[in-house]
Each structure stands twice: as structure tokens, then as C-alpha cells.
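My current task is to audit a protein record that another person submitted. I need someone to confirm that the C-alpha cell line plausibly describes how this chain folds. Take the sequence as given and treat only the C-alpha cells as open to question. This is what I was given:
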Amino acid sequence: MPTLSGSVIGQKYRSAIATYRKLLDGNLRLSFDQEADSFFRRCALGIWAAGSGIGDNHVTAYNAICSGANRPAQVLYLELCAAVEDPPAFAAPGFFAQLRSADKGTNRDRAGKFCELCKLVFLLFAAADDPASQRAVDYAMDCVSYLRSSGTGDPAQPPRQPKEPAPATQGGEGAEKAQQEEQPKEPEKTLEELMEELNSLCGLEKVKKDVQSLVNLVKIRRLREEQGLPIASMSLHLVFMGNPGTGKTTVARLLAGIYKAIGVLPKGQLVEVDRSGLVAGYVGQTAIQTQKVVQSALGGILFIDEAYTLASQPGSNDFGQEAIDTILKAMEDHRKELVVIVAGYNELMNKFIHSNPGLESRFNKYIYFDDYQGSELYAIFQSMCKKNGYTMDEALQEKLPGFFNDLYENRDDNFGNARDVRNLFEDLVSVQSDRVAQMENPSREDLMALTMSDFEQVESREDS
């Protein structure tokens, strides 16, 4: 099925609508006007749900369905994306039964002509995918077959939304995956919820401001586009620079959701990978492996951690450059459905970006992640305790602020930021578990308490 431009979709749709109206007597026109838009919207949503998600062509087609209402694209994206999650069941419109009834005893076959025109419009809806999904086309044809059989006494089964078949694997994993896929999805977070989650992160004040500015820039850009105002070229690809444990992956995951919420990305997933997930050991295999990763990230963000490790050293026989070239091509080919974030240490990432003109031209926005200070490290530890149902005794509460200040002031190249905090928390929980397990009847308070003695034991383990 060829991809159709928005203008072609609109033109053919309006032509089909005009033909439909000519098929109807004056008695039926009122019913048509009341039911046609909801009927075709229902069909379109079902077909698109069987395809590859909402894109620009879908919005154009939906504008055509609304007979020139031409509501803002941003509103349509939100409406369509929400509706596709649970598309209304397919059903023939009420006026179709009246058409079939009016045809009885005459030589006219307006109901048949209506089905043929529906077939055209349904396939136009399916063709709004880029390219058309075979599952979407099959669903469209099922809708036509069901429509033809309506009222004939031998109706076909109503078309159901097709699901991707679970792969046949050993040990019954396919059936288990199919059951998991049928579980209801968690409701997607709104832009407000995602921004609130970002702002609730400990520290990262500069990062939060940078992300808010980036979101504002994208939103205003889209509004200018809708108003026909000129917009400057803009790259959404980012460089995250900072030491390990500074929240780069967490912010990338939130940003993927934010980009989807404002209509920049159709899916909003985050695919995280490093060199080992992109580079293979044989000529030609790296491009194939990298392409698979890129395909899984389409519609969302590809997050490449320690991206500088892809840069080939002078004189080395390395396939990292093959991965870089494949990613750069994907960024060009999938401008509207892929955002790439590369991350790593400040100095190494600077060298990496400036080592390749292609990287330098595509990555021109940098977000810097500073090390967490002592007070921020302690706040992260407190949040871990609260989230996991642990408390600190008074002595431990007095000890840890100074401990984290010393950790920050004396940090070296091995400083892990929040990772060091998590390691300490997990060590304390392990020691506490050994201690409480020796109690005969531990109370709720005993099960929750982390004590100064637990901390001293963790320190003694590290010193030994």
C-alpha cells in the first residue's frame, strides 16, 4: 500500500463523502449527518490502532474527516492518541440499515455502492501509516466484509483488534508473554505529572531548568508552526555530560515521556544501550546489530551511555565507527520519530563529539549533570529509606550528614554519586537483616530500624 500525502487523503475523502450524500434520499440525510463522522472516526481509530501509531498523516486525515473543522494538530494528537489506546468497537452506522431496506424491491444497490466507497476510505486511513501496516489493511478489509454482511441474515463476526502474535518459544514462554500483553496498561502520565516527577528529583537544579527551557522551546515551536509562522531548524538530540550516578538515565526516561506528552514523539519509550549493545566482532555485523537497536527505539529516545567508547583509536581495527555511521544515518532518515541522547564524562564526551563532523553538526545541545553535594547525597539516602520503609536511629541521623559531606569533599575518579548512596543503603539493609534475623520476635520497629551499629559494621567490613 503506497504512502499517501495528506492532500490526497483529504481530496479523496471529501470526494467519497460527496458521493455518499448523493446516494441518500432526503429522509436519510439527517441520519447521515448525525452518524457519519462518528462512524468513520471509529473505523479510523480501529485501523490506526492496528498500524504503527499516530503520525502527521493521521492528523491530516482526521482533519479531513471533520469536514474542514481543522482543529489544532496538538489537540488532535492528544485526542487520537488517547482514543487509540482503547478504540471503540466497530459497528455499521444506523443509516446503512435504512439504505439496505430502501434498496429492497428496486434495481438500486446504494448499500453496495456505500460498501465500495467505505473500502476506499478505509484503505486511505490505512495508507496514512508510513508505510501501511499489513495488519491495518487486513483490519480495514475485515470492516468492509462485516459491513457487507450486516442485515443479510448471515452476518460475519465483528472485526476485533488484531494483536501481535506471541513468538513460539520453549517452555511455554510465548503463552506467558501473550497473557502479559493482555494485561491492562498503566495509564500514561500527563505532562504535568512528568514535570512534577522531574522537579521532585533531588538536586539537579540546573538540569531541571535546562529541561524546562527545552520543553518551552519545543512547545512554542509547535504553536508557531500551527500558526504558519517561520520556524528555525532545530535538533532535539542531546549530549548529557557528567559523572556516573548523577541521574542521566532517569532524566532521559522522563524526557522521553515528556516528548510524547507534547506530541514530539509518537511512543515515548527509552531504549538504553552502550557499546556492547551496538558493536559486534565481525565486519558488517555491527551495522546490523545497531540497526536492530535503532528500530526498537523508533518513536522514542535512544540513550547511548559512555558513547565516547564508540570512537575508534588511531590505527586500531575497531567497528565503533560503523555503529556511529549507522546511527547518524538513522537520525537523518527518522527525524520525526527518533531522538538520540549520548552520555558520558565531560572531557571524554567533548572529545567524542568534536572528533566527527557528523556528530558535531547533529549534537549541539548539552546538558551538564554536576556531582551531588553532601546535603544532596544525604537527601537521596533519606528518600531511599522512606521509599523502602526504613527508619534511622538518632545516632545514625547525626552521623550521616557529615559522612556524606566528607564523601563529596574527598571524591576522586571513582566517586559514584547516587550509586555510592545506593551501595551504602544496600549494605546497611544487609547488615540489619543479619541482626534482626537473630531476634526471636522482632517488632515492626525492629524490622524498619537502621542503627548506628549497623553503619559501624558496614565500615568495619570495608576496612577489613
